[in-house]
Structure formats: C-alpha cells, structure tokens
Amino acid sequence: MKKIVVVFAVFVLPLALCAQTEFKFTSGLVAESVHQYGRQALVQDEIAYQLTKGIFKKPEAGQTLFINEEGEAIQWQTIEADSSGRFRGRSLGDGYLYLEYSSDREQVAVLNISRNSMFYINGVPRGSDLYGDGWMYMPVRLKQGLNEILIRGSRFSRWQGIDAKMSFPEKLVYLIDEDLTMPHVVLDEKSGLLWGAIVVSNGTDKPLEGLSITSTIEGKKTVTALPVIPPMTIRKVGFQFDPVNVSEAQEYDCVVSLQQKKKSLDEVTISIDAVAPSSHQKHTFISSIDGSVQYYGVAPQKENRGAGQSLFLSVHGAGVEAIGQARAYKPKDWGTLVAPTNRRPRGFNWEDWGMKDGLEVLEIAKKKYSPDPNKIYLTGHSMGGHGTWILGATYPDKWAAIAPCAGYPILAEYGSSDGTIPTESQNQVEQLLLRTSNPSNVITLAENYKSHGIYIHHGDADRVVPVTYARQMREVLSKFHPDFSYYEYPGGSHWFGNESVDWDPLFDYFKWHSNKADSSVNTIDFMTANPGISASHRWISILQQQKPLEFSRVQLERDKAQNTINGTTENVYALKIQIDDLDQSKNIQVKLDGDSLSIDPGAQEVVYLYKNDQWEVGSELSKKQKGPHRGGTFKDGFNNQMVYVYATKGSAAENEWAYSKARFDAEVWYYRGNGSIDIVADKDFDPKKYADRGVVLYGNANTNTAWDKLLKDCPIRVGNGEVTLGKESFRGEDLSAYFVWPRPDSDIASVSVISGTGLTGMKSTEANQYFAGGSGFPDYMIFTSNMLKNGIEGVKAAGFFGNDWTLENGDQQIQSEL
Question: What are the pLDDT digits (tens) for 536-576?
C-alpha cells in the first residue's frame, strides 16, 4: 500500500515554515471501534494497550487488530483523503488513523494534525488539535527510515474528518502568531504596560534559556524576559508592550522580536486594536492558576459609569470567543457586562479550570468596576447556559439572579459525554470512581437555587440543545422555587440572533432582583459535593465531610432575637459558623442534629464545630488537614501555578517516558486551557524556588529524586516493581498510579503524582484524559495496563484519604481479582 503522496500545496503557515515544501498525507489505514472515553477515570483503548505492552504490530490492510467483546474482528481498512486532502468517515470517531513516513535521514519536522484527540509518533504521545483550530504545529524528530503515526480520532473526526500535513522548518526556533492572546488598548484608560501572549516553537533537543521578547509599538520598545522553552515542543509565553504613544482608535502594528542573549532568532508583526472607552473591549491578566496570560471581554456601561452599578457575568457557548460573547450585548445604562473565556472557546465546559477562570474574572471585574455587591448577575448561552446552571448551583450566594439561555443542566447527560450514572449493578470501585463527578450534578444541588432568582430563556425549535432541557429544569424548580421565570421563544432555534442572550425581559428580570446582605439572611439551606470546590454560603462553611464527595447539606435557622441557631446537617464533619451578627454579650444556643451547645462567643467572630459521636466546639481547622483551602482529588495539584517535575534517575527509557509525558500534558494543557507550564527536571527542582506552587510529579520513588522532598510521609509509595498502599502491596511491572498529596512545605499547594512500577505501568498513564472538563478522579487510583483493554477489571484500588490525610480514616475500595 502506498502510504504517502508528496504534494505541493499552499497553507497558512508560520513564516519559518513557508520557505519549505509541505507534505500532505493522502493514504492510510483506519481501524474503528478501538477506544472508549468518557468524563471519568476509566478509559478503554486497544491501541494504547498494545503500545503500552510493546505488542503493537505494523498494520496492513485486512489485518486484524483485535477481537472485541462481541467476538467481532476489528480490522485495518484502507482510507484515502478526499480532494481537499482530508480523511473522512464515521469510523474515525472512535477509531485510529495510521500513517507512515519514510525519512532518508534523521531530521526535525513539524506535524499539523487537526480534529483528533491526540497522536503517537513512533509510540510517543503528542498533543493535538481537537477542534480543528489549525495552529498546533508540533515539532518532532523523525528517525531515519520508517516513522509511524497513530492518530486517535474524536467526535470531531467523525463529523468533520482529519487533516494531516507535515513541514520542514527553515528555522528550529521561531514565533507562531496564529494563536495570540492580546488586549485592546482602551483610550483614556491609564493602564501602563499591557500583557499579550505568543507561541514560541523549540525544534531543538535542548531547553531554550535566556530568551526575551522586545515589543515595539509606535516607537516604544519594551523588553520582557521569557521562561524556559522545553525541548522539541511549543510554549505560549507572556510579553509586555507599552501603548503610551497610542492616541487614536485604530489598528496598530506591533513588532515582536525574539532574542537569546541579544541574538535575534525571529521576528513577526502583529496587529493591536485601540478602541474608545465606549466600545466593546478585551482586557488581559495573569492567571493565578498557571501564571499564563488570559483575557476577558467587556461590554462597557453606556453611561453613568462609576462605583455602585450592576455587574453581569456572561459565559459563552462552545466555540465562541469571549469578545464575541460580549459583542452580542448592547451596552446597558445600568451596568457593565464581563465575559470570561473558560480558558478557551471550548475549554473545560465551565467546569474544573473553566469554573476557576470564571471566578477569577469575576473577582478582577469587582475590583475594576466596583459594582454594588448586591447587583451581580450571571447569564450564558448553550455551553454557557450549562455554565450558568453549574456556577449558579455551586456558588449560590454570589448572584442576585441567574439566566441560563439554551442551556443543558448536567454535562454527563448532554451529548458530549457518555452519560454514565451510578447504578446499584456496578461494583464498589466503579461506584467510588463515578462519585467523583457529583460536583457536576446540578439536579441534586438544585435547591441551592433558592438563594437567587432564575430566568430561563430557550428557543422552542432548538435542535442543538433541545428545549426539553429547559422544561426539565422548569419541572425541577416548580417543586420548591418561589421566584423563577420561564420563556420559550416561539420558533427560536439554537441561535436566533442577539436576542438569544440580549433579551430585554431577561434584563428587566435582573433589574427587579437584588441580592441580600448576609446579615439579613437567617435561613440557610446549602449543599455541596466537595468543600474543596464550594464550601461557603452566607454565614456558614462546610469545612469537612464525613464521606468524601457524597453530597453534604446544612439547613439552619438563625433567630437573632433569641440568639439561637437550630438545624440539621447531612454528611458534615466540620462546620464554621459566622456569629458576629448575633449578640456577643451572652451565650449563643446552638442545636444541631439534636445536639445542644451553649457557646460563649467571647471576642470570636466565628465558631468551629466538629461532629464525632455528637457535635462539639473546637478550634480553627488546621491547614494541614483537608479543607476548602486544599480539598484533595487527583487534579488538585494542577493549580497554584503548577510546575511539572520529570524523572531523570531511571533507565534511559524511563527518563524518556517521564519527559515525554510531562511534555504531552503541557501540550494538552496549552491547547485546552490556553496555558503555559514550567517543565523542570527533578535534579533542578528546588522547593524553595517553587514555593507554594502545585507540583505534578512524573516517575516513581526510584526514578524521580523529588519524591522524597515532596512525598516522604505519603502512605502511597510507588517504586520499581511494587506499589504500597498503607498495609496493602501490589507487585508487578505494569502497575500505574494517579494520586494527590498535600505539599508538606505549603498550606495551599498539592502534589499530583503520575507514576508506574515499570515502563509498562508508566506508559499506561498516557491514555487518560484528566484535562477533559467534568472528568472526575478520586484522591488515588491504582490500576494496571489491563484497564486499557478491559476497563474496571484493571483497577486495583481507588479511594479518598481521610480529613487528616490518612488512609485509615479515609474511604477505600480494593478490588479482588476477577
């Protein structure tokens, strides 16, 4: 079979690639029904399994890849690109596309593959362009002879096909200006230096240090030192520019020059828009999640600007830019509208880091625009309608009212997930794993909506997000909510113009609603599934749970005249109550779950209560315990400007895996989260240099020298050939582990560990998609490569640490051999 045809073509490429011949793959092989991915920790992927075990064979047309559970032979079939150079077919959705390239020498190339979830080149995983944006130019080192590329398809592959092309760069280090993050220069706003971001490609085998960017706009130069660019990958970096000489509302050229110790490496010219204060606008900021440059869109208030006005947070739909979301709204004369990005137009479905982005922008907007704290509103469309439902349920006291437009409530019940819901027929390990998605279940959390008004807006002819979702929520709310409004737009499709979001009756509803001061609210009814995500409501905080990630609830009544608090709790171990609104001159009488307490407030503004056999007054929760500051689950380490630390003390193959996996995760994070990551070798990791930062550690106790610096007291230890889990021990070379542990020298940061007992176990961690929005993981999970083939059968153990970070007081499930 002829696997590749060389064609001359014209593509939009970075300047460093334009002088060379571009190659497009036009022939290949495809195997369907190979992988199954949902928004959970379990994955099945036959090709990942075979690559992990070292048994993958060079395919040929008609060759059987494997026999599935139904006894059917899954075979490789030939596939040809169409006249546009695109591979198409439904089989790509849950299948793999196989391509070959024979190189006459070892050399650096750039692969650009679109609408796939990832790819392997010669067995090494690389980040890819899931949504077909076109700007993922991945530098790779081709070996002399045959190079094999395995491309894992996605639902976008099924709908739109896969493009695969390769270029040979004129330079090995250059700038890519197709994925910029840039602000507008807002005239008359004295903002000083502004932040932008651009991608640097490093096609060398060495980390690039001592880099800087010089920006020049209207004659004003600004120099920004850059972080290290890891070998053979791309990294988006922030740089500053000075708009002091910008004076008119127009487009300006900005020259961006990349240098290394005064040596010029590359230069591009980008455009920056200057806008009037009354125009829709973009603002950038440095994110506390990872230190990257992010932006938000604004529809400024039309008139009467100043403190004490309203603030609207609008969260966009899938594929929509934040500035596009803002431009869908006419400026209001009674408030400012702010649109966060979800980190990308698709990002994280307004869950996980997408939710964090929304909250981060909300706090920035509150400081910048000084709104009336009781006049903050939330709305969004489509995926942003889901974002409205989940942000409204998770943080109910932040909003005066919310307005989901064309939204679905639960991600797992929408078409972008497999919709798996826990049932009694599933075993206990799987039940525990599925429990980790409870924070996304807004139906169970729905009574939190009682804290604010709700306006539901949906077209009755919507075929993308059917109106049945709106009717479902109307039915849910009708059972308890005293103040919601519902409107179906006659004949309205998914998008029927700007009225799909900028709907006058919706904003009239907002205008009629104000939030209440905490001091005036005496009835509390609040639920959470994870205090590490959402702990507080008005004057109470759920600090710790009895059973991790089961739903917790507090229902309290406060009587200021009687100086009493009475109520009930469910699945709550530690509770904080604000008492400064009660009479401090006499004891406060508290009755919880039938237990009576008489509390002398003294000079305290808060009281801490703990439930063992009964409720008791205690001291402030220690930062060394689990709590809202650091609540656990595996993904917790991917925060606080995380740094990826890879092993260098294993075998050559183990060290190569550790760096390749860290690089792969950084590439996926960049694509999904517009992010930027420091990748550091274990020998260069100094805890003091990276104080209070999250750490993601790749390797095991024998291969990664940072292990004892960060995990010395952890009851989970992964070494060569063995995993110990407290008193339990698992042996073999194909064991894998994901787990989280509190960073011992920090009160806020966590360590997320990606580990294996040998090369097979290490490679088994590659297939998982923990960056998928809404994907749930426990505190720890131990599995074998068999999970990739047989799902839950390959999971050895999973669980949660106790509130004191011990295994003994936690919730653990160990699976017997099946």
Answer: 999 999 999 999 999 999 999 999 999 999 999 999 999 99
d(CA 240, CA 246): 15
CA distance 475 to 479: 7
| pLDDT band at 13; cut points 50, 70, 90 | low
Burial of 273 (0-12, 13-18, 19+ CB in 10 A): middle
Sign of CA dihedral 619, 625, 626, 630: positive
CA distances from 539 to 27, 566, 607 (A): 64, 14, 11
Are 372 and 366 in contact by the 8 Å Cβ rule? The answer is no
Count of beta carbons in the 10 Å neighbourhood of residue 806? 11
Distance CA 775, CA 638 (A): 14
Please name the residue ranges forming H helices in 100-172: 155-160
CB contact at 8 A, 174 and 265: yes
β-pairing, 376-381 with 310-315?
parallel
Helix (H, G, I), strand (E, B) or coil at 740: strand
Q: Find out whether 769 and 42 touch, Cβ atoms under 8 Å.
A: no
Residues in the chain: 818
- Phi (first) and psi of residue 714, to 5 degrees: -75, 135
pTM of the model: 0.95
Beta strands in 287-385 (DSSP E): 293-299, 310-315, 335-339, 376-381
DSSP letters of 157-203? Answer: HHHH-EEEEEE--S-SEEEEEEEEE---EETT----SEEEEEEEEE-
DSSP state of 40: B
Residue 794, number of CB atoms within 10 A of its CB: 23
Coil/strand/helix, residue 501: coil
- Least Cα distance to 358 among 380, 332, 373, 334 occurs for 380
Q: Which of 391, 384, 382 is nearest to 459 (CA)?
A: 382
Query: Backbone phi, then psi, for 781, in 5-degree steps?
Result: -155, 125
Closest alpha carbon to 134 in 242, 216, 13, 265: 13
User: 561: which residues sit within 8 A by CB, 6+ positions away?
Assistant: none
Can you read off the two tokens belonging to residue 716? 């989970």
Task: Please tell me the distance from the alpha carbon of residue 232 to that of residue 239, in angstroms, as a whole number.
Answer: 21
Compute the distance between CA of residue 143 and CA of residue 477 in angstroms, rounded to an integer: 61
**632 and 626 in contact (C-beta within 8 Å)?**
yes
Q: How many CB atoms lie within 10 A of CB 651?
A: 13
- By DSSP bridging, strand 716-719 and strand 722-725 are antiparallel
- Going from the C-alpha of 818 to that of each of 46, 428, 711, 757, 785, the distances in angstroms are 20, 13, 32, 21, 15
Q: Report how far apart the first and last C-alpha atoms of the chain are (Å, whole number).
A: 42
Neighbour order of strands in the sheet with 552-559: 523-528, 552-559, 564-570, 588-592, 595-599
Residue type (1 letter), 43:
V
Q: Which residues contact 586 (CB under 8 A, 6 or more apart)?
A: 563
**Cα 416 → chain centroid:** 15
Q: Which two tokens stand for residue 761?
A: 């176990």
- Residue 214, phi then psi, degrees to nearest 5: -105, 120
Residue 268's nearest CA partner among 186, 175, 196 is 175
Going by their DSSP bridges, the two strands 484-489 and 453-459 should be labelled as parallel
Task: Please work out, in degrees rounded to the nearest 5, the angle formed at the alpha carbon of residue 469 by the alpha carbons of 464 and 474.
Answer: 145
Nearest to 47 by CA among 90, 95, 111: 95
pLDDT (tens digit per residue) in 728-783: 999 999 999 999 999 999 999 999 999 999 999 999 999 888 998 888 999 999 99
> Residue 543 corresponds to which tokens in the numbers above?
């600090």
Please choose, from the candidates 193, 195, 207, 181, the residue with its C-alpha nearest in 3D space to the C-alpha of residue 260.
Answer: 207
Torsion angle (degrees, nearest 10) of CA 219, 223, 227, 229: 50
Contacts of 497 (CB under 8 A, 6+ apart): none
